[in-house]
Write a structure and sequence with these properties.
The structure is a homodimer of 158-residue chains. Chain A has 158 residues and is α+β, with helices and mostly antiparallel strands. Chain A folds into 2 domains: 87 residues, Winged helix-like DNA-binding domain superfamily/Winged helix DNA-binding domain (Arc Repressor Mutant, subunit A); 59 residues, Dna Ligase, domain 1, CATH 3.30.1490. Chain A has 6 helices and 5 strands, in the order ααααββββαβα. In chain A, strand 1 and strand 2 form a beta hairpin. In chain A, helix 3 crosses helix 4. The interface between A and B is large, with 37 and 37 residues. Strand 5 of chain A pairs antiparallel with strand 5 of chain B, so a sheet runs across the interface. Chain A binds a DNA duplex (25 and 25 nucleotides) through helix 2 and helix 4.
Chain lengths: 158, 158
DNA sequence: ATAACTGCAAACTGTTTGCAAGCGA
DNA sequence: TCGCTTGCAAACAGTTTGCAGTTAT
């Protein structure tokens, strides 16, 4: 289950912390290793669980205090699908031109390229007199395949 | 300040309630009148304030219980811009092919047409094996004009 | 040494809900 | 009348924060 840490991203984040004179603490190291050893999208709570599997000393507060640093560094992307909690994408920096689609029922998240949309979005922003800072295309859908199987919830669909 | 109620939408919503055997109470009437006499996007709290200006007896609970009915009827559209609260659009049914752009600083919301994007979105959903249920394009941006004025916050920008 | 960082638990914010009273059909 | 609806306040969920103790530099 334990995947190899993506050293590139990890290194960039540590550089980011050093540049800000932030300390590389044990807890931060564990959280970083956790984030950059998965390709899955996750919530704050999931990250906490995963990190605690490695070291029980990691607290919820530290996870919540580290997430803004990760997003600020642009190495992790924050996404809001209208659910009461946010999702985080640990591979956004590798391919920033993608968007996400979430299944209404099982919350499975699928990535897709969207150069076309990206361009249109910037055009629109410009026409309206805005500088677009972040784009987030929120598609809610239901899985066709799973729907045909008759079930598609968090338990059956993972 | 008090705009004319958009009778068309109001009538449709009352029909919606009747079809479901829901009652047309005084509080609901006030909330409906409030929603359909503005073109502005609003939050639950704003709606409560506006409704209370008409009748102090309207409670927060009733507003929160009425909003899902309004969105279910498709006469009001719920939007999530990554803020901790949701926004509602009371003219969505008039022109369902538009999306929104929000200013990061002052939270001003601007609408724009997006037939092109709409099509691409459906294509994408289909390719991936999903039936797209709702689309929400979330553009965060900053106002160019106001930025040049040096300020753009909730107070100065309304 | 000392300032940043941590865990804990309490606080906060937006939203939901149980309940007894109120009111529309 | 009957049961849907209401206001109230308490409960909730996710997130943030104050504080006293800990730790990286």
């Amino acid at each position: 289950m334990q995947k190899k840490v993506r050293e590139e991203a990890k290194r960039k984040f540590i550089e980011f912390l050093e540049k800000k004179d932030f300390r590389i603490t044990n807890q931060r190291r564990i959280i970083i290793d956790t984030v950059f050893s998965t390709d899955k999208h996750f919530t704050a709570e999931q990250l906490l669980d995963w990190a605690r599997e490695k070291d029980k000393s990691v607290s919820r507060a530290t996870v919540y205090r580290t997430l803004p640093l990760l997003t600020e560094s642009k190495l992790v992307h924050e996404m809001d699908f209208g659910k009461p909690y946010k999702f985080y994408d640990p591979n956004y920096s590798d391919s920033p031109n993608h968007n996400h689609l979430i299944c209404e029922d099982c919350e499975k998240i699928v990535e897709f390229d969207s150069d076309k949309i990206e361009k249109i979005e910037n055009e629109i922003g410009h026409k309206l007199g805005f500088t677009v800072k972040s784009q987030n295309l929120q598609l809610s859908a239901s899985c066709d395949v799973l729907k045909s199987k008759g079930a598609c919830d968090k338990k059956t669909c993972d």
